[in-house]
Amino acid sequence: MKLAAKPENIMEWMAVKLNLAPIPMVDTQIAFNAARAIMAGVELGIYEAIGKAEKTADEISAACKTNPHATLQLLNCLVGLGYLGWRDNKYSLKKRFHKWLLKESESNVVSKLRFQLIEWNWMAMLEEYVRTGKTLQLHNTINEKEWHLYQEGMRDLSVNSAKDLAKKIPVPKGAKSLLDIGGSHGLYSIELCKKYPGLESTVLELPGAVEHASAIAKRYDTTGRVHYKAGNALEDGLGESQYDVVMINNVVHHFSVDQNKALAKKIASALKPGGIYIIGEFMRTDKPGEGGAVAAATGLYFSVISASGNWSENEIRSWQTDAGLKAEKAVSTITLPGWKMIIASKP
Predict the structure, then answer these.
(1) What CATH number is associated with residue 225?
(2) Inter-axis angle of helices 31-43 and 110-122, nearest 10
(3) Would the pTM of this model clear 0.90, i.e. be above it?
């Protein structure tokens, strides 16, 4: 997926085509103003105040307890960005965004957009990171409020993909035990347990994350077979021949090469024969630029906040095969562009 300036009339088309318009200004000034406006709409309750109705600026301002003049400026910006409609001095939320911006929709990304206000500040250290190589080390700095928003934001990213991927993951026949490392909200475990009635999952989460993560899982788990355990997969023993499936999603970008290799060996020992090890991540392509904006931006972001950044499919597979596991077909989902599950089995 690529992002680009989109001309809206013939003059703009000519300006872009002939390289007359300062595209870096569009990609920066306009892009970050637009991003902040969209996130502010969530944080201030603008979209919820409008709902599926049409309302005046004064009605929206009163509902959100915001300044009328400033609210009008934000509303007009959101109209220009294509998020709101306007007619007869009333504003409406475009129908295509009801799914994503109204809390009544299970698919909403409201918490993720609110969490991005925190991520906005993290990315402000980008220049310092490039100068010094010093990273944020997210899990050592995040506070309780941020943990809550982080977990809810991860729910937003996974609520649709978990359902889709549960249909594609090659769970061994008769599987009974799943270890979900850093499983956060537990949605991947929940969907697998729904699909496989004999399967029981243990979600291993950091002590600071267990409370918020398990609270989210309780809203979705109808199986009673998803349990939480506080711990650290890099430090704790995982047992021998104990699990049919070990899964780790959106976590290995926080680990170094040596840590990921050591973890793969530990997991290989913890798997039963025929068991599978699943690593889900946004992929870094072997050739810069091939993955478009998603791969490029997520790779940089993860580099700033953690130990490594994105890994390539070949790198991830090397940890698995070096641990004695056999490479299996990767699975992906259209709901998370650029994201894959790399799978290997124990002979």
Answers:
(1) 3.40.50.150
(2) 130
(3) no
Whether the per-residue pLDDT at 328 is higher than 70: the answer is yes
Phi-psi region of 137 (alpha: psi -120 to 50; beta: other; left: phi over 0): left
Q: CB burial class (10 A; 0-12, 13-18, 19+) of residue 113?
A: buried
Q: Which helix (H) or strand (E) holds 86?
A: strand 84-87
Q: Which residues of 243-262 are buried (b: 16+ CB within 10 A; e: fewer)?
A: bbbbbbbbbbbbbeeebbbe
211 found inside a domain:
yes
Asked whether residue 215 falls in the same domain as residue 309, the answer is yes
The answer to whether residues 93 and 232 belong to one domain is no
192: tokens are: 């697998």
Percent of the chain with pLDDT over 90: 76
Q: What are phi and psi of 109, to 5 degrees?
A: -115, 30
pLDDT for residue 4: 60
Give Dmax (Cα) for the chain. Answer: 68
What is the Cα–Cα distance from 277 to 246, expressed in whole angstroms?
Answer: 5
Token pair 């007009």 is at which residue? 76
Q: What is the pLDDT of residue 24?
A: 82
Residue 25 sits in which domain range? 10-101
Spatial CB neighbours of 272, under 8 Å, sequence gap ≥ 6: 177, 241, 242, 243, 244, 346
**Per the structure, how many domains does the chain have?**
2
Are 301 and 175 part of one and the same domain?
yes
Whether 81 and 210 map to the same domain: the answer is: no
Confidence band (pLDDT; 50, 70, 90) for 16?
low
Residue type, 123: M
292 in any annotated domain: yes
